[in-house]
Amino acid sequence: MTATTSEAPRTATVHANGIDVHYREAGSPTSPDLVLLHGGLVSTNPLWDGTPFSYGAYLGTLGERFHVVAPDVRGYGRTRHAGGGRVSMSLLADDVAALVDALGLDRPAIAGFSNGGMIATITAIRHPGVARALVNDAGCDIFDPESRSFPMLRQVFGGSPDAKEANPDAVEAAFGSDPDMRQFLELIKADHDAAGGPGHWRTMLQHFFEAAQHWPGYGFGDFAQIDVPALVLVGDRDEHSPVEDCIRAYRHLPHGQLCVLPNTGHVITAAKVAAMADFLTTDGADA
């Protein structure tokens, strides 16, 4: 699947679960619904479309087969976290279920990359019957309470393995020594500060840290509750969501499939998007 755009995605906002959710939309409302969730630290802002961390470049092509709704999750981009309180993976999953209800979507497929894959999976567990199919792309490590991802994330984004909150200054120091990571951080700042004002990227970072730095209370055994077709998708060189975790997740799915892409790291690729679309058109179409 190539990253072509037959029609420019539309943008809109809907009130769901107490917040105003901004989303990009592509495709015909008469096509099968697909809720598409972005990964951590990014959003649906078009400035990410040229990077391998966003589905943005594929929205037009996916819109030829699906009615795509791609929201900014709570605390990211143009979707604010209202009312205070900690942002958790369960809250983000509840937001997705509320979005489906608010838009009147008909049992959509729910798919996501990295953090988005985690949120999609927890949505399917917490809200049976909401989704007709599930795709988790590179979002399985969080379901292991002993995952090495947790201390690594706290080290990078909190400044120490036992950090309790995000430390934006530590992030700037860690990202500043590598040109690619420094550029990534500049995109984060440009994205979130444009939506929330100067320095808002620091607030977004705290929301990200709150949700991702500890086990969400759901493990691989809970995948047995997902009674719809589900695809676990991962690159064989993914350093953040190891293939071994994805295999563990897949083995608990009653109607699961596993797809491991060769020579692929923790990124979104055309091959991954094609595998997702083919799965949803065949195995996930009649759930």
Radius of gyration, CA atoms, in whole angstroms = 17 Å
Spatial arrangement of strands, main beta sheet: 1-2-4-3-5-6-7-8
Number of helices: 9
At CATH level 2, the architecture of the largest domain is: 3-Layer(aba) Sandwich
Gross geometry:
globular
What is the CA-CA span between the terminal residues? 24 Å
Report what the structure shows.
With 287 residues, the chain is an alpha/beta fold. The chain folds into two domains: 10-141 and 217-281, Rossmann fold (3-Layer(aba) Sandwich); 148-214, no CATH class. It contains nine helices and eight strands. It is globular, with a radius of gyration of 17 Å. The model has no long low-confidence stretch (mean pLDDT 94).
At a glance:
The chain has 287 residues and is an alpha/beta fold. The chain is built from nine helices and eight strands.
Protein topology:
Layout lengths: L9 E7 L2 E8 L6 E5 L21 H4 L4 E5 L17 H15 L5 E5 L1 H12 L6 E5 L11 H10 L9 H9 L2 H18 L3 H13 L17 E6 L7 H9 L4 E6 L8 H12 L6
